[in-house]
Design goal:
With about 280 residues, the chain is α/β, with parallel strands linked by helices. It has one domain (about 5-275): UDP-N-acetylmuramoyl-L-alanine:D-glutamate ligase (3-Layer(aba) Sandwich), CATH 3.40.1190. The chain has helices at about 25-35, 65-75, 90-100, 125-135, 145-155, 165-175, 220-235, 240-260, 275; strands at about 10-15, 35-45, 55-60, 80-85, 110, 115, 120, 140-145, 180-190, 195-200, 205-210. The strands form two sheets. It has a nine-stranded mixed beta sheet with strand order 3-2-1-4-5-8-9-10-11, with helices on both faces. Strands 6-7 form a two-stranded antiparallel ribbon. β1, α1 (about 25-35) and β2 (about 35-45) form a beta-alpha-beta unit. GO terms for molecular function: ATP binding; pyridoxal kinase activity.
Length: about 280
């Protein structure tokens, strides 16, 4: 029997939205299905995600150091540290401190630099926060920006399509220079395909593409990055983890469209979670 000591565990630093399938309500079941213990660190509490017309929001910034201090007293370390949406510059600093305090030489740090989409930064992201995010990226082993976020990080002008692969590789190299070992640029449109660029230092880059299907939905990035975090902590090669994540996200979108799930409700991954559990 696998002991707790040998079961992989990941500290997942995300907001908790009670409705809408994103952040921790995605990370918890996905990591668990992949046989990894999820140890959540809530950055804020929401009744539902902000894509709905109304929501309750409680900023957890002031409570996070008190929460994390207890883990320090317990001398905890983690096989993985996985950060998602952060609501303030102060939270970025807290995550950097967590990486320093709870990592071992074998800890995999995955930073999902959630800053924007469709060519625009989220309203909460100031220039100062974008600058601090570059600092956090430097502490990551794996960084998973979408195309918008990769442009924000590198100061490039966003465009929906028409990117040359040489341009994308240059952008990944610039993000490498910030410190991470691996960069996965997600959601690159190439005609009727969606491509993910997997760029690892000292390895040939991979452009992994699949047919674009279904509706664009919130929470798919959280599903993708959660699978990546779990698989890489277990030792799965990054390109294989990206293929698995992309395949599952695609299946979730198709199932959600089939069941006429409202767009704002995200993807009904619960319907096909058995695909992950069986492996």
């Amino acid at each position: 029997m696998t002991s707790e000591k040998h079961q992989k565990k990941i500290a997942a630093i995300h907001d908790l939205s009670g409705y809408g399938r994103c952040s921790l309500t995605v990370a918890l079941p996905i990591l668990s299905a992949l046989k990894v213990q999820c140890c959540p660190v809530p950055t804020s509490i929401l009744s539902n995600h902000t894509g709905f017309p109304t929501y309750f929001f409680d900023d957890y910034t002031g409570k996070m150091p008190l929460y994390v201090e207890q883990w320090k007293k317990l001398n905890l370390t983690f096989d993985g540290i996985y950060s998602g949406f952060l609501g303030s510059e102060e939270q970025i600093g807290i995550v950097i401190d967590m990486i320093k305090d709870f990592s071992t030489p074998d800890t995999v740090v995955l930073v999902d630099p959630i800053m924007g989409d469709h060519g625009k930064a989220y309203q909460t992201y100031t220039d100062r926060m974008c600058s601090r995010m570059k600092e956090l990226v430097g502490y990551g082993d794996i960084v998973t920006p979408n195309l918008t976020e990769a442009c924000i990080l590198t100061g490039r002008k966003y465009r929906t399509n028409g990117w040359k692969r040489s341009e994308l590789l240059a952008m990944a190299a610039e993000i490498w220079d910030m410190g991470p070992d691996s960069v996965v640029v997600t959601g690159i449109r190439e005609g009727g395909y969606v491509t993910n660029l997997v760029a690892e230092k000292s390895r040939e880059p991979h452009f992994l593409r699949s047919l674009h299907v279904g509706s664009e939905r919130p929470g798919t990035g959280d599903v993708f990055s959660s699978i990546l975090a779990a698989e890489t902590v277990k030792g799965t090669p990054l390109s294989d983890a990206v293929k698995k994540a992309a395949h599952f996200v695609k299946a979730c979108i198709l199932k959600s469209d089939e069941l006429h799930v409202p767009i704002e409700n995200g993807v009904c991954f619960e319907e096909i979670l058995s695909l992950l559990i069986r492996e």
